[in-house]
Amino acid sequence: MNITEKIISAHLEAGEMRAGEEIAIRIDQTLTQDSTGTMAYLQFEAMGIDRVRTKRSVAYIDHNMLQSGFENADDHKYIQTVAAKHGIWFSRPGNGICHQVQLERFSIPGETLLGSDSHTPTCGAAGMLATGAGGLDVAVAMGGGAYYLTMPRVCRVVLTGELKPMVAAKDVILEILRRLGVKGGVGKVMEYAGDGLASLSVPERATIANMGAELGATTSIFPSDNRTREFFAARGRAGDWRELRADPDAEYDEEITIDLSALHPMAAQPHSPDNVTEISSIAGIKVDQVCIGSCTNSSFCDMMRVAGILAGKHVAPNVSLTISPGSRQVLRALASNGALAKMVTAGARILECACGPCIGMGQAPASDAVSLRTFNRNFYGRSGTASAKVYLVSPETAAVSAVTGVLTDPETWDGGEPPYSVPELFDIDDGMLIRPVADTSRIEVVRGPNIKPFPKASPPAETLSGPVLIKVGDNITTDHIMPSNARLLPYRSNIPYLADYCMTPCDPLFPERAKAAGGGFILGGANYGQGSSREHAALVPLYLGIKAVLAKSFARIHRANLINNGILPLEFVSEADYDAAAEGEELEISSAPEQIRAAAEGAEVTACIGGREVKLRLDITERQRDILLAGGLLNYTREREAK
Ligand code: MIC
Ligand code: SF4
Q: Could you say which of 410, 443, 473 is where a domain stops?
C-alpha cells in the first residue's frame, strides 16, 4: 500500500478504498481557528454533545487578531470558554498560526486530522492524513462522527536531486502549480516520494503540503522518515515519532517527477496561485511591499534564511517589509539567537505570530501597489486593496527583493545562501496552550453580543423556484462569495451582517437583489468555490435564500459545505446550457425531494431556466441524499443522535 492507503485503511469506518467511492474515516485530531471556529462551536453546541470524542481537539486564535472593536475579543472569549467546557485544548492569541503550532506540538505520523481551515494538510509534512473541511464537518468529527470524503486518487510526486542554493521549497510547489494548475489536484492526494526527500526538512515539506491546497487536492502527504524523526526530537517529542513509508510495491494512480536541481526561483503572478513563472523572466518590477510569514512560510528555517539575507543590510526606501513568525516557539528562538535583532535592524516591521496580512488583517497595500508575499493565495482583492498586484514568492526572493527594492532573482544575490543552524533541542514553552480539564461543570460559556444565531436549513420544498440572481465565470473563490478582510472578519459569527457583502467582489448589487427577490439561484463556472474552507460561503447564501448553485464544476470543500447546509450543488450536463442561461431568468426545479432521491440512484435532475429544459447532475451518495432531505447535516446528525 501507499501511505495514503495505509492511513485510510487503518481508519476506515465505511466504504471501500476505490478511487471515486465515498468512504468514511475516523478522525483522531481536529483543529479549528477563530474565523471558522465560532461557527463550528455554535454548531457543535447545537448537536448537544458534552465532551469531544476525539483523541485531541485544539481551538486556535490566529486569524481575527486586530481588536478594533469588541467583536474579535468577544469571539476569543467565547472560543476559549466553549473549548474549556467541552474538553478542547486552547491555543491563546499570540501562540501562533494553527498549522504551524499543530505541526510543532501535536502532529503524529499515521494519525488523521480534520481542520476547519483549507490549509490543514500542512501536517501532511509529518506523515498525517490531514484535510480541511467546513466547520460543521469538523463539529461532527469532534462529536466522534466519521468524516465522509471521496476516496482520492493518489498521485505519486517523485522528487529527485537537490535544490540549488537560494531555490526553496516554495519554488517546488509553485512549479507543481505551474504544471497542474489550481484544479490539478482535485480528487487527489499528492503523495511525495523519491531520493530528493532526504534533502527536505519537515518545515520545507510543510510549505509544499500547505500549498497543495491551492491545487485543489484533498491533501498532500510525506513519508515519516529520519528527517521527520529529527524534527520531532528537536521539539522534545521523540516519543510521538514513528516511521511510515509506502511499501516498495505500492501502486499509484498517477505519477509526476520533479528534478529539484533543475528548479529556479518562481513567482505566482496576480491573481492566481497557478499563474507561475520564473522570477528571472519578470525581475526588475518595482516593489512597494514585502510580507513574510503565513502558514506557508513562517517556520524557524524560513525566518533564519530571511534574517541571514537581511543581516547588515537595510530595506529599500520604497519598500515596507513585514515579518510574522509562525509561532511563539519560532519567535522565542529568533529572539534568543539574535536573528530577530537582525530583522529589526534591517528595518522590518515585526508583526504578531498570526495570519495577519495573509487574510487581510491589516497591511493592505497602497493603491496599485506591487506586494511580494510568501503566502499561498493571491486572489483578487484578498490583500484588502483591489488594485494591488500580489506576487507569491519564497522567503529568499522576498528578503532579497526587500533589500534591492525590485523583484530580484535570489540566485543573483551576491551574498549567496546564508548558513544557519537548527537547535538540536528547541527551548520548549507551552505556556500559551491551555489544556482541557476533567471537571467542566462550573465552566460558563461566555457569549458576547456579536454572536448571532446561525441560519438553519430546512428540508427542500416541493418546488424550488426563483430568479437566477447572478452568473459568474470560472474559478470563483470563496473570497469572492464571502470576502474576508479586517472589516468583515469580526462578523464571522454574525451571518445577517455578512450577508450584505456576499458576492460583492463580483457584483456589489448582489445582496440587495437577493433580498428583494427573497432568494433564488447562483450560476457558476468551473471549480466554483475554490480556496478557503469557510462555511460562511454556504451559510450566507443560505441566509439569503439561495436554493441551489448551478455550476460547471465545484471545489471539494465548498461543495460539501453546500450539501451540509441543504443547498443543492448542481452541475450542468451540457456547457451550452450554462452559456445560454442569463441573470434574471426564472429557474424552477419541480418535485425537488423526488428528484434528489432519484439523483442518488444516478438520475439527472431536470430544471427549467427561462422556459428551457436543462439537465443537471447531482452527484450524491445515499448519505448526502439523506442530508439534503433532512435539511442539512445538523438536522441529519441530530436525528441520528436522537435515534
Ligand atoms: C484562508 O486562508 O482563506 C483562511 C482564512 O485561512 C480560510 C479559513 C477562513 O476563511 O476562515 C481557509 O483557508 O480555510
Ligand atoms: Fe492563516 Fe493565511 Fe494560512 Fe489561511 S492561508 S490559515 S489566513 S496564514
A: 410
Which ligand has the minimum distance to the alpha carbon of residue 376?
A: 2
Residue 445 lies in a domain: no
Q: What is the DSSP letter of 124?
A: G
Assigned domain for 131 exists: yes
Question: Which atom of ligand 2 sits closest to the CA of residue 117?
Answer: 6
Is residue 117 in contact with ligand 2, taking CB distance under 6 Å? yes
In the chain, pLDDT over 70 holds for what percent of residues? 100
Select from 308, 295, 435 the least CA-distant residue to 356: 295
Contact between residue 432 and residue 59 where contact means Cβ atoms under 8 Å apart? no
The rounded Å distance from CA 583 to ligand 2 centre is: 34
> Which domain CATH number covers 566?
3.20.19.10
Predicted pLDDT at 643: 81
Placement of cell 470563496 in the chain: 478
| First and final C-alpha spacing in the chain | 37
Would strands 266-268 and 254-259 be described as parallel, antiparallel, or unpaired?
unpaired
Supply the CATH number for residue 166's domain.
3.30.499.10
pLDDT in tens, 60-75: 999 999 999 999 999 9
355 lines ligand 2 (CB under 6 A): yes
Q: Where does the pLDDT of residue 346 fall: very low under 50, low under 70, confident under 90, or very high at 90 and above?
A: very high
Are 228 and 286 in a shared domain?
Answer: no
* Nearest Cα residue to 59 out of 95, 11, 28: 95
For ligand 2, the distance from its centroid to the CA atom of residue 122, given in whole angstroms, is 11
Specify the DSSP class assigned to residue 116. S
Nearest CA to ligand 2 atom 2: 358
Point out the ligand nearest to the CA of residue 375: 2
